[in-house]
Amino acid sequence: MTLALLFPGQGSQSVGMGAALADAFSSAREVFAEVDEALGQHLSQMMRDGPEDQLTLTENAQPALMAVSLAAIRALKVEFGVDVTRAGFVAGHSLGEYSALCAVRALSLSDTARLLKLRGQAMQRAVPVGRGAMASLIGPKTDLALAEEAARVGSEVGVCVVANDNNAGNIVISGEKAAVDRAIEKAKELGARAIPLNVSAPFHCPLMQPAADEMATALAGATIAAPAVAVVANVTARPETDPEVIRRLLVEQVTGRVRWRESMEWMAGEGGVTRFAEIGSGKVLAGMAKRIAPDAESAALNTPEELEAFAKSL
Questions:
Q1: Is 94 a catalytic residue?
Q2: Phi/psi of residue 164, nearest 5 degrees
Q3: Residue 199 pLDDT greater than 90, yes or no
Q4: What's the mean pLDDT in 202-230?
Q5: The pTM is what?
Q6: How many percent of the chain have pLDDT more than 70?
Q7: Which of 3, 99, 147, 271 gives 20 to 30 Å between its CA and that of 133?
Q8: Out of 204, 263, 281, 298, which one is annotated catalytic?
Q9: What is the pLDDT of residues 131-189, one digit of tens each?
């Protein structure tokens, strides 16, 4: 059995996330305390008690989701003796790539928290509120070719690209509002359903270039070590272990496409992965894994009971 650990991205946050881990394990509480200290804010209290509108802010949601994932990783090792090196690969969706890198010891926890806080702020600053938009194209007819064609038509009136290739039947486009609106109309003509997303900025598109520039500066000063397990990168959909390549890809990821479907297909195919475990908050990626790699096992590990059962199953 080859195992891959998956780390969720924005949208998986919810008030109360991580509370059960913190209540059950001192190792998890230590992670939350370390993140609070690195950021100089009571993020763990916001995660536990809300308010939801504050937790949903990009600059809070990004480090918060990472903190829950790393609390679960720390608990797996300390409480159950399961080290991350039991996995053949790790991968994270967008911000989850930072969680993955921290889990495999390429980035320190405090640096990861600070980088994600800055990433959230930089992405928010990059585009004035209301100028950008994102939409999810869904349904049985939705594939990459359909999404590319819709984005091409949208780009006739402004920036519009495929941002997240999640899985067949679920592809996200991003760009200027007028262009995304045009793309939505085209997608509907082509037989897809289109749902505008409630996001604060148009992520993973060229409008994010100012944020990419900010992250390039921040990452240039960050210590990145060789990961203990290969990280399948969003930008290349292939395993990466070279710290300098990882540094460059994290910058490209801000404006680049999240090639999640391809990443998962590579792991389940050439990578020989037969079991996927989503670590942290929610079960979005576990659900995608079931659709992309139906022959592999997939589960979400959110609670102390799920962590214990997973550890026993290895």
A1: yes
A2: -130, 115
A3: no
A4: 98
A5: 0.97
A6: 100
A7: 99
A8: 204
A9: 999 999 999 999 999 999 999 999 999 999 999 999 999 999 999 999 999 999 999 99
| 128 CB neighbour count, 10 Å cutoff | 9
Residue 296 identity = A
42 is an active site residue = no
- Three-state SS string across the chain, please? CCEEEEECCCCCCCCCCCHHHHHHCHHHHHHHHHHHHHHCCCHHHHHHHCCHHHHCCHHHHHHHHHHHHHHHHHHHHHHHCCCHHHCCEEEECCCHHHHHHHHCCCCCHHHHHHHHHHHHHHHHHHCCCCCEEEEEEECCCCCHHHHHHHHHHHCCCCCEEEEEEEECCEEEEEEEHHHHHHHHHHHHHCCCEEEECCCCCCCCCHHHHHHHHHHHHHHHCCCCCCCCCEEECCCCCCEECCHHHHHHHHHHHHHCCECHHHHHHHHHCCCCCCEEEEECCCCHHHHHHHHHCCCCEEEEECCHHHHHHHHHHC
Q: How far is CA 49 from the centre of its chain?
A: 23
Identify whether 202 is preceded by a cis peptide bond (ω within 30 of 0).
Answer: no
Contact 12, 282 (CB under 8 A): yes
Query: Residues 27, 44, 94, 200: which is the catalytic one?
Result: 94
Contact present, 191 and 138 (Cβ < 8 Å): no
> How do residues 25-66 score in pLDDT, each as one tens digit?
999 999 999 999 999 999 999 999 999 999 999 999 999 999
Tokens matching residue 266: 């590579």
CA distance 126 to 312: 45
